[in-house]
């Protein structure tokens, strides 16, 4: 998540800077229809396309739905207000939990108190979707999609247990000092997400990485070892996939290995989004080596766009689901990318049950400065 405002040159990257007029991460204004690159790329809540694993009849008695959703929607639907001026760029005044309580520290991505409310059975389409996703999990490591040179999508790569542990860890870090806040610019414009950083702080206003977060002087915590391990393994596995077991294949197609020292953690609520941008605020060395950005998706799915230019019309689209890992390095290191929308009510039921995660999507992007 860098480079949203940068118009300037980083020096020594002339060929790349042809692509470098990334705008701020702001309002998403689709101009037209967007190409769909994968058959599965649609943000549909009621997936009627595949065989039902549990029939309507057999489940009819069990399915009672909607009350939890309604209750949560009524308290979590506060859209970000762009017109509101903020005195400090990191606006913590919006750090309410889903029950509208103000927290003294960071925004809480988990639903406090909801687990004590009577739980209703999830609707049929959700049960079946979860079963299908569990089946995908058993394909772990095999379901890798080559999107373009340097860019791969690893479907369902993160195990269920790891997803639970990542959500819980981010929740704890997010409510601590230096945790989630809603970033914005001095103009008053705010991003449509909550964010915090690990390792180093990335500041949207200056597009710079610093040791301390400017608005509250907090120092980002370290990236947990467990996260580091998943990142390294994902790069290794994607290279094995690219090589296809053939050691003699072109080295240039491989994704450079990387030990991240920065992780940007984003939480999108149901109206969250992120404009097309390039990640290019990392060091010259990191960009020259084309070290990859590795992205984890958890919770609700997202419509993710990527392309050679900043044009939405020319962009490709994929759906990022809970457990997916997306890698863009090598020739795709400076790809434009962004999130057009969050697909409501698509998070795995079991993940919600295990974590009490609020409706929305958690995204972690790892980079090397
Ligand atoms: O949420 C995502 O999938 C992308 C996030 C991103 O591009 C960033 O943090 O720079
Ligand atoms: Fe980004």
From TrEMBL:
Give the Pfam families listed for this entry.
Answer: 2OG-FeII_Oxy_2
- Report the residue ranges that make up the Fe2OG dioxygenase domain in this protein: 259-369
Gene3D superfamilies in alphabetical order: Alpha-ketoglutarate-dependent dioxygenase AlkB-like
Q: Which GO terms describe its biological process?
A: oxidative RNA demethylation
Give residues annotated as binding Fe cation. 277, 279, 337
**Which residue intervals are annotated with compositional bias (Polar residues) in the record?**
39-51
The UniProt keywords, alphabetically, are: Dioxygenase, Iron, Metal-binding, Oxidoreductase
* Cited SUPFAM superfamilies: Clavaminate synthase-like (SSF51197)
Family according to the record:
Belongs to the alkB family.
PANTHER family listed in its UniProt record: ALKYLATED DNA REPAIR PROTEIN ALKB-RELATED, NUCLEIC ACID DIOXYGENASE ALKBH1
Protein name, entry field: Fe2OG dioxygenase domain-containing protein
Per the UniProt record, the source organism is Tagetes erecta
